[in-house]
């Protein structure tokens, strides 16, 4: 499960942005404030589960399986309460992805930004993934994506048609992880 603060991420380095737009007003980041807000949000997370895996200041995975959830009758209800509290108490919105594993939850969290709540069920994961670009797979960077696309493997569905052995032959150790990801496993 993932909860992530909404906002715009820089698509280019600041020096490049200033070269393109020298009249821009640049607001210095306030890292101390970001860390305080992140800690406040993590406290809200702790009201739902003790098992939290921070990824960055604005992103974390929460284990909301029945045996770990401290409140709310369902994971979806716990996440809805987290979103409500973060908006009310901290003053920002979150995008939430709910799924059976981190890979799918991350994808779900990116579906409805900002302030979205998306669910990818485990049963429909493989069909959901099939039409997506290989670039959506965690760990597939630009160079790997270009190699895959050059070989005609532009969608996850095309990777699903390959065996783990074929993926390992093409991508080394990463091929094992890739074989799991393309079938919605993590």
Q: How much helical structure, as a percent, in the residues?
A: 40-55%
Beta-sheet strand percentage?
5-15%
The number of helices is 9
- The ordered string of helix (H) and strand (E) elements is EHHEEHEHEHHHHH
Main β sheet profile: 5 strands, mixed
> Distance between the terminal alpha carbons, to the nearest Å?
12 Å
Taking all Cα atoms into account, the compactness measure Rg is 19 Å
Number of strands: 5
Low-confidence stretches: 1-10
**What structural class do you assign from the helix and strand content?**
alpha+beta
Overall 3D shape: flat
**If you average the pLDDT, what whole number results?**
90
Lateral strand order in the biggest sheet: 2-3-1-4-5
Task: Describe the secondary structure blueprint for this structure.
Elements lengths: L1 E4 L8 H7 L10 H16 L5 E5 L2 E4 L12 H16 L3 E6 L2 H8 L7 E4 L4 H5 L12 H9 L5 H5 L3 H8 L2 H8 L5
Helix pairs in contact: 2-3, 8-9
Describe the protein's architecture and organization.
The structure is a single chain. The protein has 186 residues and is α+β, with helices and mostly antiparallel strands. It is 44% helix and 12% strand. The chain contains nine helices and five strands, in the order E-H-H-E-E-H-E-H-E-H-H-H-H-H. The chain has a five-stranded mixed beta sheet. Strand 2 (52-56) and strand 3 form a beta hairpin. It is flat.
């Amino acid at each position: 499960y993932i909860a992530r603060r909404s906002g715009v991420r820089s698509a280019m380095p600041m020096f490049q942005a200033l070269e393109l737009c020298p009249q821009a007003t640049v607001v210095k980041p306030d890292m101390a404030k970001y860390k305080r807000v992140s800690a406040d949000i993590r406290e809200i997370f702790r009201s739902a589960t003790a098992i939290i895996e921070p990824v960055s200041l604005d992103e974390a995975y929460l284990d909301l399986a029945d045996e770990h959830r401290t409140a709310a009758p369902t994971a979806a209800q716990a996440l809805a309460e987290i979103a409500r509290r973060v908006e009310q108490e901290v003053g920002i919105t979150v995008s939430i992805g709910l799924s059976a594993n981190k890979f799918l939850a991350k994808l779900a969290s990116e579906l409805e930004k900002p302030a979205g709540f998306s669910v990818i069920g485990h049963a429909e994961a493989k069909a959901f993934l099939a039409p997506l670009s290989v670039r959506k797979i965690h760990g597939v960077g630009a160079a790997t994506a270009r190699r895959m696309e050059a070989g005609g493997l532009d969608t996850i569905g095309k990777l699903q048609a390959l065996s783990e052995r074929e993926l390992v032959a093409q991508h080394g150790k990463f091929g094992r992880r890739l074989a799991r990801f393309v079938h919605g496993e993590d």
